[in-house]
Structure prediction request, 196 residues.
Amino acid sequence: MPRIGVIIGSTREGRFADRVMEWLAPFLQQRTDLSFETLDLRDFDLPFFNERASNAYAPTQHPEGRRWQETLAGFDGFIFLVAEYNHAPTAVLKNALDYAYPEWQRKPAACVGYGGVGGARAVEGLRTILAELQMAPVRHAVHIAGNDFYAAVTGQQPLTALTYLNASVDAMLDDLSWWAHALNAARNAPAAAPRN
Prediction:
């Protein structure tokens, strides 16, 4: 069964990501085709990237960077919880992405965005980064947006009240499952003979 890491992409105090994770967890627990583990960036004390080069070209020197890479290597795909800061993903998430390369390659990625427009601009920007890391961003995403987002942030409405999002979660997880199984099989297949 493919292992999926759910990456909490914000580390600031008072982050909304914890409520998103709590809301998402029951959907993940219902799946029998994927297994999930939370990867909280607060648990990885990654410094601002200061390596000689990406680990695609040179070994990472910082021990926490190596620990992050070793953790990622065991997963077959990822879900990113994406906060939108100034139309972009968080700096801490971009830094975490930069700290690895082979560990991301040929694995699917799904996004749960939140913010004024559901984190759509941050998710769109993130997808270009994921493609550069040779990941396969899935089409369906979840966007917690507008008045519903603000009502949840201020405690006026729980995320569980947003039942119209359930279909988006299911579609995202179905996409992720298909790609995780397909790419897992492809990564484990015998290498093709080189072309002459």
The chain is about 40% helix and 15% strand. The helical segments are 17-29, 63-73, 91-98, 120-132, 146-153, 166-188. The first helix runs from residue 17 to 29.
